[in-house]
Amino acid sequence: MSKFAQLKELIAATEADAQKFYENGNAAAGTRVRKALQDVKNLSQEIRNEVTALKNRDK
Fold first, then answer.
1. Could you tell me if 59 and 47 are in contact, meaning their C-beta atoms sit under 8 angstroms apart?
2. Contacts of 11 (CB under 8 A, 6+ apart)
3. Contact present, 58 and 18 (Cβ < 8 Å)
4. Average pLDDT, stretch 23-48?
5. Residue 24 CB neighbours (<10 A)
6. Is the Cβ–Cβ distance between 40 and 7 less than 8 Å?
7. Is 40 exposed, middle or buried (CB count within 10 Å of its CB: 0-12, 13-18, 19+)?
8. pLDDT, tens digit, for every residue of 11-22?
9. DSSP readout, the chain?
10. Cα-based torsion angle of the residue sequence 16, 18, 22, 27 in order, rounded to the nearest 10 degrees
11. Residue 42 burial (CB count, 10 A)
């Protein structure tokens, strides 16, 4: 469950940069958003693998 909390924190931390990019056109903020989204993707994959392992362990 800690990885899920990390995922929520990562998304919340990215919100300010997303606003800077979409509302003000700040290109550097866009780069930070893209990096954060890559981190979200990787963390999501880790969570998926963990869930699958736990689900299969109980069988």
1. no
2. 36, 40
3. no
4. 97
5. 9
6. yes
7. middle
8. 999 999 999 999
9. -HHHHHHHHHHHHHHHHHHHHHHH--HHHHHHHHHHHHHHHHHHHHHHHHHHHHHHHT-
10. 100
11. 10
Give the position of tokens 């993707």.
Answer: 41
Which residue in this structure is represented by tokens 């990885």? 3
Residue tagged 């990019």 (tokens): 21
Structure tokens belonging to residue 21:
């990019």
Residue type, 2: S
Report pTM.
0.83
